[in-house]
Amino acid sequence: MWLVSKYDTMDSMAGTKFQFGDGVSVIGGGECSRKTLEEALSHAPRLIAADGGAARALGWGLRPELVVGDMDSLDPALAASFAPGQICRIGEQESTDFAKLLRVVSAPLILAVGFLGGRIDHTLAALNALVRHEGAPVLLLGEHDLCLHVPRRIGLALAPGSRLSLFPLAPVRARGAGLVWPLEGLEMRPGGRIGTSNEVDARGRVRLAFDAPGTVLMLERAALGAVLDALGRALGGLPAEPPAR
Questions:
Q1: How far apart are CA 208 and CA 206, in angstroms?
Q2: Which stretches of the chain drop beneath a pLDDT of 50?
């Protein structure tokens, strides 16, 4: 179940928090296949929607427990099919529906689908929301890629030769090992040096560290299990070094 500290169908998010004890899958209105959503749900079984993403879920016979957004993309007839307590309307236009949702939803893990691919401005806005979010891990899962705001320190067991990209949305100095092109001491910043299109070396054991937050890690979608394992180790206070392959 989810617990609500206060609920309104509202034009302000102040004081409202939806707290989930399980992992949450979020569906947005962008490109997404049912297979991708089902993969997310296999790891994060609670389904919620960002505004018009509810229509796609309903079309697949899946009913979100909660819909968050300004409701400008959801047909009123579909919105009316939800109980009043399942619609969280936030009318301000200073943030995206995804950013609104991240402000009011608390869960141990959030996997978001329907936010990568399609319009580049929507994708960039979703990445911006990632690095501004404070709290439990949020991953964007696309048809080919996954993205997350990488922790300050993480170890990953990844397939040798797989793609690994780092994109800074704030100035940051990176250190790392396990990549074909070394990161050690690399200074990255928006409009300056970036770290895209790197490659995991033959050992398949990657270590990353950053002196500040603000870097988006982009991997192949097949790395989802490895990322969830690494995040679990980090959150559980276990050593960041990944297990031997």
A1: 7
A2: 1-14, 237-240, 242-245
Question: Is residue 198 within 8 Å of residue 174, measured between CB atoms?
Answer: no
Mark out the alpha helices in 21-108 (DSSP H runs): 34-43, 53-59, 76-80, 97-104
H/E element holding 27?
A: strand 24-27
Domains of the chain: 2-143 (3.40.50.10240), 153-235 (3.40.50.10240)
pTM of the model: 0.88
Residue type, 14: A
Tell me, rounded to whole angstroms, the distance of Cα 6 from its chain centroid: 25
User: 8: Cβ–Cβ under 8 A, 6 or more apart, which residues?
Assistant: 16
**Beta-bridge partner residues of 166:** 195, 217
- pLDDT tens across 190-201, in order? 999 999 999 999
For residues 185 and 130, what is the distance between their CA atoms, to the nearest angstrom? 24
State the pLDDT at residue 72: 85
For residue 232, give the nearest of 165, 142, 162, 157 by alpha carbon. Answer: 157
CB count in 10 Å sphere of residue 201: 17
